[in-house]
């Protein structure tokens, strides 16, 4: 499957360069949700922005090249322990425990916060049908690469009670772990409805299902929290 997708991308580009004519440029906003996530994760949701160029290949066929940016909020059970953060496990966890044990007036709330930024780059090949003059229904299949940076920080809130003067001193700061990065390969299927409102403008609504190709031990697959996602996008196309 991995080799098939790696071969598919250059073939799609070759097809486009041979017969393609630019049809439209699209800007869109997205909302995504992890349908299946890696064990230990409880939720993964994202908002994003993107752009796409559609090429007509003739006979109702089209090719689309699109890229974008997505910001994921991630929830994971025992996130701090699962991160394998050596600074925490080898040094800082012991310091925290020692400080709290040494002073009963001292307290701490430690909350791990996890997020992920992705830069998807995808190519799709599809068919466009026009049931109405203004309405076009597009279905497509494709493949691509998702470049990701997954981040975690520990939000620490410390308080010390000075009972003799009835005063509590407190402060909060963030302690950042090392990022995790990768670029897994994905496949995708899309269905889109495009309503042409004028000779130059169309309004688009798209649904996309994306699956991650299994590559254990490479491309950052093991640290990527998503196995497949559902994306809803809305945008505006400028027609050529």
Q: What is the gist of this entry?
A:
The protein has 240 residues and is of the alpha+beta class. The protein has three helices and ten strands. The chain has a single domain (2-8, 20-82, 115-152, 180-239), classed as Beta Barrel (Porin), CATH 2.40.160.20.
Question: Could you characterize the architecture of this molecule?
Answer:
This protein is of the alpha+beta class and 240 residues long. It has one domain: Beta Barrel (Porin), CATH 2.40.160. Helices cover 16% and strands 64% of the residues. The chain has three helices and ten strands; from the N terminus they run H-E-E-E-H-H-E-E-E-E-E-E-E. The protein has helices spanning 2-19, 79-82, 86-102, and strands at residues 21-37, 41-58, 61-76, 106-129, 135-162, 167-176, 180-182, 185-196, 201-212, 226-239. Strands 1-2-3-4-5-8-9-10 form an eight-stranded antiparallel beta barrel. A hairpin with a 3-residue loop joins strand 1 and strand 2 (41-58). It starts with a helix and ends with a strand. 28% of the residues are buried.
């Amino acid at each position: 499957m991995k080799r098939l997708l790696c071969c598919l991308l250059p073939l799609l580009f070759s097809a486009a360069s041979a017969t393609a004519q630019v049809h439209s440029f699209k800007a869109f906003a997205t909302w995504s949700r992890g349908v299946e996530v890696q064990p230990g994760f409880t939720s993964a949701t994202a908002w994003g922005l993107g752009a796409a160029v559609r090429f007509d290949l003739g006979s109702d066929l089209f090719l689309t090249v699109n890229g974008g940016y997505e910001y994921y909020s991630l929830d994971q059970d025992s996130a701090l322990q699962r991160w394998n953060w050596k600074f925490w496990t080898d040094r800082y966890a012991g310091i925290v425990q020692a400080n709290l044990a040494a002073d009963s007036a001292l307290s701490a709330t430690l909350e791990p916060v996890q997020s992920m930024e992705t830069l998807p780059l995808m190519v799709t090949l599809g068919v466009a049908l026009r049931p109405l003059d203004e309405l076009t229904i597009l279905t497509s299949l494709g493949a691509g690469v998702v470049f990701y940076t997954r981040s975690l920080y520990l939000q620490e809130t410390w308080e010390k009670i000075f009972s003799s003067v009835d005063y509590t001193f407190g402060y909060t700061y963030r302690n950042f772990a090392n990022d995790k990065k990768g670029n897994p390969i994905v496949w995708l299927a899309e269905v889109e409805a495009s309503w042409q409102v004028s000779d130059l403008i169309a309004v688009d609504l798209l649904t996309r299902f994306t699956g991650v190709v299994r590559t254990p031990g490479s491309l950052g697959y093991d640290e990527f929290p998503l196995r497949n996602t559902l994306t809803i996008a809305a945008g505006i196309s400028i027609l050529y």
